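To the wet lab folks,

You asked to see what we're planning to order before we commit. Fair enough. Below is the target structure as tokens, and below that is the sequence we designed to fit it. If anything looks off to you, flag it before the synthesis order goes out.
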């Protein structure tokens, strides 16, 4: 830690963080894999197949009204995942990320196209993202390049994949340099993913409520909807659990839902589980149906951010 304190004020001024942002949202996001790709495709197909049916006696204008109401009533259905980026040296004209030793910065070149080639997923259409170059001290990167990882964090709108194929449906939220312990060393955007809220959480033992986690005891749901067990997981006999994070609004509804972690394995033995995303979409939908008693502060309803809720998927034996 003493070596970090010797960094010059120059680097602090350029917002370079070493061990200043502790384990956070970002290290809980799953890496892109085949499970995520397949789950996105299955979820998009499922949503598309649920669209209203047009009867042969129905007028086009009548159907359009029904269809538009269906589209506007769809709940938010987004997934966030991360993609590992390789840091090249020296810098050249190729797409991707490189480290410029002369100015001590990570530089990005056509990063959206570069990530598209990595994922190789025809369903994911990235918007153009031009991140700011990240200042990283040469000595730090030289000592940590073999241990730290650079990730791009991507948010994909599954509803857009289902009903607007070919159009842009995904965006890069942030590009983050992470240490092995999950701490953030640097960020291109300092998005919500870099905010450390886990250190301020009071973990509540709620075994009778399927191990829900929240910021305080006033954020217990008054209405819970059990998530639908994914058919693919059911057929495979897969169990698991998912933790989501969201904001409780002034009315007690839920918004801004994201998946913090998703695991496959026996929920009673989480240490033996592996990361997966097969339960993510079902948990996101169930989160949006939760209802809470609004939090009152000084006689006024107040939103509560960063509330955690855990969904358990366990088969009857």
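Sequence we intend to order:
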């Amino acid at each position: 830690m003493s070596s970090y304190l010797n960094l010059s004020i120059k680097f602090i001024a350029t917002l370079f963080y070493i061990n200043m942002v502790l384990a956070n949202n970002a290290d809980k996001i799953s890496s892109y894999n085949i499970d995520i790709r397949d789950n996105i495709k299955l979820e998009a197909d499922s949503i598309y197949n649920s669209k209203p049916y047009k009867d042969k006696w129905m007028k086009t204008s009548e159907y359009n009204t029904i269809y538009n109401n269906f589209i506007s009533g769809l709940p938010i259905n987004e997934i966030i995942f991360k993609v590992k980026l390789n840091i090249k040296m020296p810098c050249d004209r190729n797409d991707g990320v490189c480290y410029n030793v002369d100015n001590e910065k990570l530089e990005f070149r056509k990063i959206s196209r570069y990530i598209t080639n990595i994922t190789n997923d025809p369903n994911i259409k990235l918007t153009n993202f031009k991140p700011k170059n990240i200042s990283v001290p040469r000595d730090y990167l030289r000592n940590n390049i073999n241990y730290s990882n650079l990730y791009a964090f991507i948010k994909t709108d599954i509803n857009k994949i289902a009903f607007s194929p070919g159009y842009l449906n995904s965006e890069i939220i942030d590009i983050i340099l992470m240490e092995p312990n999950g701490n953030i060393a640097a960020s291109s955007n300092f998005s919500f993913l870099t905010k450390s809220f886990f250190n301020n959480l009071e973990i509540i033992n709620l075994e009778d409520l399927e191990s829900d986690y929240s910021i305080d005891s006033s954020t217990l749901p008054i209405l819970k909807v059990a998530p639908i067990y994914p058919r693919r997981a059911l057929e495979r006999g897969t169990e698991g659990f998912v933790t989501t994070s969201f904001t409780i609004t002034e009315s007690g509804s839920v918004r801004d839902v994201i998946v913090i972690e998703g695991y496959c394995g026996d929920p009673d033995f989480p240490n033996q589980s592996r990361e997966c995303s097969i339960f993510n979409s079902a948990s996101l939908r169930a989160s949006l149906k939760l209802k809470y008693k609004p939090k009152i502060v000084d006689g006024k309803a107040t939103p509560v951010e960063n509330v955690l809720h855990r969904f358990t998927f366990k088969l009857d034996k």
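Structural context that might help your review: The mean pLDDT is 78. The first helix runs from residue 2 to 5.

Thanks,
Computational group
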